[in-house]
Amino acid sequence: MSAKNILVVDDAATIRMYHRKMLGDAGWIIDEAVNGMEALEKIAQREQPFDLYVSDINMPRMDGYAFVKALRARTEGTLQAPVLMVSTEAQSHDAEAAFAAGANAYLVKPARSAELVLTVALLLGDRQRALRAAADIARGQGPAQRAKAATGRSL
């Protein structure tokens, strides 16, 4: 199975780096955009669509809700990649708005690494990575803790 391509859309550089690290370490190929408008531009430039989108809600130029609605509108009638919204917005109405826009899953920041990897693996249908992430959650361990245990060093 070839590595899946994920587009992380967030205006915060630290969040993009965190998602790149956690998802990249899990074996997926990560690209980044700083807002919904840039994400749509990257999508338009690609020959192959991304396999998954991880998007914030609150961003300049085009927020996550507008991005997901535009994404869903442009690919109407075709197989659509799943969207995971990850936001500091923790109210149930925020998640409901994300689902209404077309998101498939919703996590509240800061998303723990094992939960992020598990959710992405489930959305991608990646059984092996989902099982590993679920085992990490059961042990209270994520990719960073697993690396520290293996090397004796913190990431």
Automatic annotation (TrEMBL):
Pfam families: Response_reg (PF00072). SMART domains: REC. InterPro entries: Bact_response_regulator (IPR050595), CheY-like_superfamily (IPR011006), Sig_transdc_resp-reg_receiver (IPR001789). It comes from the Bacteria. This is Response regulator. It comes from Acidovorax lacteus. Keywords: Phosphoprotein. The modification 4-aspartylphosphate is found at residue 56. The keyword Endoplasmic reticulum does not apply. Residues 5-124 form the Response regulatory domain.
